[in-house]
Amino acid sequence: MNKYEKWYQAITARGQTRILNEYTETHHIQPVSLGGADTPENLTRLTAREHFICHWLLTKITTGEDRHKMLNALRMMRAENPRQQRYKTKITARVYAKLKTEYSQLQSQRFSGEGNGFYGKTHTEEARAKISAANSGRVQSDEEKQKQKAAMTGKKRAPFSAEWLAKLTETRQGERNGMYGKTHSEETRQKMRAQAVGRKQSPETIAKKSAALTGTTREKKQCPHCEQMIAVNTYTRWHGDNCRSFQ
Predict the structure, then answer these.
(1) For the residues 61-76, what does the mean pLDDT come to?
(2) Handedness of CA 197, 201, 206, 208 (dihedral sign)
(3) Do the Cβ atoms of 84 and 25 come closer than 8 Å?
(4) Which of 21, 30, 65, 245 could lock onto 225 through a cystine, CB 3.0 to 4.6 A?
(5) What dihedral angle (degrees, nearest 10) is formed by the CA atoms of 171, 173, 174, 179?
């Protein structure tokens, strides 16, 4: 028997024999999720603090799948319940981070591979048709749009890594490119041209673009012919082999 088991037994045994004139909570000595029964000999009365400590000790005593269950039980000790005065003492950042990280890793392992309910399966054509029909012509409500916008406001996506960008480029090259070996028909070109002619950006769009670029510095390169420093996004169009000084 290790020290955690000794502490756990001492606290739960004391709770079965004393009488307290303060708030207490019922605790299953052998947790129900681990096969414990809802009987008097398996129940003890603990203070809110003792109850929390006992659930923490159970994460130290158990292993494997049982420990996963106890980690979840400890995590739920912080949940709000109008019928219970939950443990309010602060948990140190280190303990909280450790518990959350380990629980997240266990959850990931539990539902990955064969643990995933959809592992090795695919939707039938009938199921795909139903999903397609349910989404065809669907228009988001203004309320749904506002919720999505509010959820993303103030958040910034982490920049893509060089490795990720290289992989993205690779997936769109050669035969993997949807337009590989194809050209737009003259009719399609006319449609694209008609949509672009006379199109103007709204003041709101212009302001957003301006705000996004404020304070940033565009990469530049020097033209070997006119020796000017030119932004890379316009370099190939007006400089390099197309530079007037070169021609």
Answers:
(1) 86
(2) negative
(3) yes
(4) 245
(5) 100
